[in-house]
């Protein structure tokens, strides 16, 4: 049987004895039933030592009395037992130092989150401020300047009484919307001024269509009066350069607005018959100008008698 307490060399026994004493203490801790039973007897130290000796001999190990005594004494003195330090600032700082890598990651993540949150907040605040400043500049500068520019242009572009009256009405509506702080209405009013300028700039002739295969005129029998007839001449708007314009036209039959390049203008029967006679001799309408829309006016000036109303299909 090997004697663990014995060894070769001066330093080895001390190390072996220390390790063996620690093993004895560990064995005692794991043999709770053995310790409790031994401690309950009168001759407990001797009994515990004998039982420990038997335990080691059963493992093929011979342990000296001194080692066993040291182990029992160490158990009583709580040697080789780790008692954690009580909570303190120094202990907290030591734990932080040991876990500094994880702490550093947490701190970096927290700083990054704060930076991102701060950046998003700054961006939102800055965006809101920019939007507010843009809206303020639009209402205080941009839209008023647009109205002033349009008013000055319309003063020279509106050449008829009704055109000037319409220009004044639209300018007043735009200024009222700006004064009320209604940006949407002000933008709509400024767009209406631009639309008016576009209409005034147009110049075209209302030519009666007389091409082969196309209708020059049509008549309708009203539903409310089957004894009557409504007469229409088919026209198109032709610019001085020969371009055919598309115009928004409201049909009196259904009240719908359609943008078309040909439409029917309602005329008296006498006008209708006159054009029909003009076309009947050679298939061509010689006097084919129903009216002319000069630059600076809103509506055409008609050269033939016309009535109110139009149609967009036939």
Describe this structure in words.
The strands form 3 sheets. Strands 3, 4, 5, 6, 9, 10, 11 and 12 form an 8-stranded antiparallel beta sheet that branches. A two-stranded parallel ribbon has the order 1-2. A two-stranded antiparallel sheet has the order 7-8. β10 and β11 form a beta hairpin. Residues 1-13 have low confidence and may be disordered. The chain has helices at residues 12-30, 32-39, 44-57, 65-77, 89-98, 100-157, 161-179, 183-201, 269-280, and strands spanning 2-3, 61-62, 204-208, 217-220, 230-238, 244-245, 247-250, 257-260, 263-267, 289-293, 301-302, 310-311. It is α+β, with helices and mostly antiparallel strands and 314 residues long. It folds into 3 domains: 2-77, no CATH class; 103-201, no CATH class; 204-311, no CATH class. 55% of the residues lie in helices and 15% in strands.
Labels describing this entry:
9 helices, eight-stranded antiparallel sheet, 55% helix, 314 residues, 3 domains, 15% strand, two-stranded parallel ribbon, alpha+beta
Give the SSE map.
Elements: E1 2-3, H1 12-30, H2 32-39, H3 44-57, E2 61-62, H4 65-77, H5 89-98, H6 100-157, H7 161-179, H8 183-201, E3 204-208, E4 217-220, E5 230-238, E6 244-245, E7 247-250, E8 257-260, E9 263-267, H9 269-280, E10 289-293, E11 301-302, E12 310-311
Parallel strand pairs: 1-2
Antiparallel strand pairs: 3-5, 3-10, 4-5, 5-6, 5-9, 7-8, 9-12, 10-11
């Amino acid at each position: 049987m090997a004697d663990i307490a014995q060894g070769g060399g001066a330093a080895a026994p001390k190390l072996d004895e220390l390790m063996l004493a620690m093993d004895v203490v560990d064995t005692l801790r794991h043999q709770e039933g053995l310790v409790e039973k031994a401690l309950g007897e009168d001759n407990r130290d001797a009994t515990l030592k004998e039982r420990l000796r038997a335990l080691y001999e059963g493992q093929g190990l011979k342990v000296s009395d001194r080692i066993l005594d040291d182990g029992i004494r160490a158990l009583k003195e709580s040697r080789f037992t780790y008692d954690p330090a009580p909570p303190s600032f120094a202990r907290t700082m030591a734990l932080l130092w040991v876990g500094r890598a994880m702490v550093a990651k947490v701190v970096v993540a927290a700083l990054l989150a704060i930076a991102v949150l701060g950046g998003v907040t700054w961006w939102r605040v800055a965006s809101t401020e920019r939007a507010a400043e843009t809206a303020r500049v639009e209402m205080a500068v941009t839209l008023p300047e647009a109205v002033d520019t349009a008013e000055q242009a319309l003063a020279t572009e509106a050449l008829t009484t009704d055109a000037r009256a319409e220009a004044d009405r639209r300018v007043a509506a735009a200024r009222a919307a700006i004064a009320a702080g209604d940006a949407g209405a002000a933008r709509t009013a400024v767009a209406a001024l631009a639309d008016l300028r576009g209409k005034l700039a147009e110049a075209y002739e209302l030519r009666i269509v007389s091409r082969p295969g196309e209708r020059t005129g049509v008549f309708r029998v009203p539903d409310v009066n089957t004894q009557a007839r409504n007469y229409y001449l088919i026209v198109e708007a032709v610019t001085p350069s020969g371009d055919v314009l598309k115009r928004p036209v409201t049909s009196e039959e259904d009240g719908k607005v359609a943008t078309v390049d040909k439409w029917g203008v309602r005329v008296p029967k006498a006008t209708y018959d006159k054009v029909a006679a003009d076309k009947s001799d050679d298939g061509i309408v010689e006097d084919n100008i129903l009216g002319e829309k000069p630059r600076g006016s809103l509506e055409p000036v008609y050269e033939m008698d016309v009535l109110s109303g139009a149609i967009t299909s036939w």
